[in-house]
């Protein structure tokens, strides 16, 4: 355990993703916020952030949770993704440091409760929002998506030197037909390409959980299991066929793809 962090919670709980499983997710308070370079390393080791804490799963009997990321300069949009991209070209995007407003808090709670994502939860308060998203140990940004002057989606991102972690996306349920979860990911991948960045971390992939396995639709993508990252180049690749890749690849490996527009699979 580093002098820069300390464990503030370490217990077993009911798994939120798979019935009958037990989860263990130690929370590590960051006494000193990591540098942007160290944050990239933490992401490559499977870490996620909540508030000023980092965590990764360490469950006693299950290894179904697999961190997943997209190498942005290799990514290709599928046919359905191109349709979503084209459908949302009227949107305006604003990038600001994460902050809580009444408008965003209302949208977050509508998103959770009207879409059936809340399990035995009460509505999030401003204090809860601040403690999760705003009071951060990382450089945390919001990508706000607008139709004219109406905000319809917020995406919270943690930004390192070369890598970005998607913390949470929520949107106005009245605009569900716009597929904002997918579109925001596509836009943020394009933004990362323009910034010459490397990996877009999507959090956890669980094959048997419908709330998480959709993340596997982005190709190519890497998943972390058995201590190593493995690349899935397309939907036909199995775990037995995927290619091991380093925890962190130098950006120079992607130079041949820099600046190219994504194409269909």
Note down, in words, how this protein is organized.
It is built from 5 helices and 15 strands. The chain has one domain (5-257): Aminopeptidase, CATH 3.40.630. Mean pLDDT is 94; it is low at 258-265. It is an alpha+beta fold and 265 residues long.
Concise structural overview:
The protein is of the alpha+beta class. The chain has helices at 36-44, 79-87, 102-114, 126-134, 180-194, and strands at residues 5-9, 12-14, 22-24, 27-30, 48-50, 53-55, 66-71, 92-97, 139-147, 150-159, 164-171, 199-205, 221-225, 228-232, 243-245. The chain is globular, with a radius of gyration of 18 Å.
Q: Report on the biggest sheet.
A: 9 strands, mixed
Percentage of residues assigned to helices: 10-25%
**Percentage of residues in strands:** 25-35%
The CATH superfamily bears the name Gcn5-related N-acetyltransferase (GNAT)
Radius of gyration: 18 Å
Overall, the morphology is: globular
How many DSSP E strands?
15
Going across the major beta sheet, what is the strand order? 8-9-10-11-12-7-13-14-15
CATH topology type: Aminopeptidase
């Amino acid at each position: 355990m580093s002098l820069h962090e300390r464990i503030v919670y370490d217990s077993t709980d009911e798994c939120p993703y798979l019935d009958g499983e037990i989860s263990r997710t130690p929370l590590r308070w960051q006494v000193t916020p990591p540098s942007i370079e160290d944050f990239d390393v933490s992401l490559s080791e499977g870490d996620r952030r909540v508030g000023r804490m980092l965590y990764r799963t360490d469950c006693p009997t299950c290894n179904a949770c697999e961190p997943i990321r997209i190498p942005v300069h290799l990514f290709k949009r599928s046919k359905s993704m191109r349709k979503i991209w084209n459908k949302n070209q009227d949107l305006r995007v604003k990038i600001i440091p994460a902050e809580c407003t009444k408008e965003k808090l209302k949208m977050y709670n509508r998103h959770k409760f009207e879409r059936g994502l809340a399990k035995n939860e009460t509505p999030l308060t401003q204090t809860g929002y601040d403690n999760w998203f705003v009071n951060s140990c990382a450089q945390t940004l919001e990508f706000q998506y607008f139709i004219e002057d109406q905000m319809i989606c917020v995406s919270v991102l943690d930004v390192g030197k070369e890598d970005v972690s998607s913390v949470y996306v929520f949107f106005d349920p009245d605009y569900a037909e716009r597929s904002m979860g997918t579109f925001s990911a596509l836009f943020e991948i394009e933004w990362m390409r323009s910034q010459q960045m490397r990996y877009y971390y999507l959090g956890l992939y669980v094959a048997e959980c419908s709330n998480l396995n959709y993340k596997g639709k982005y190709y190519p993508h890497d998943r972390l299991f058995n201590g190593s990252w493995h690349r899935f180049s397309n939907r036909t690749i199995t775990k037995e066929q995927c290619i091991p890749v380093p925890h962190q690849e130098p950006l120079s490996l992607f130079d041949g793809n820099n600046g190219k527009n994504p194409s269909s699979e």
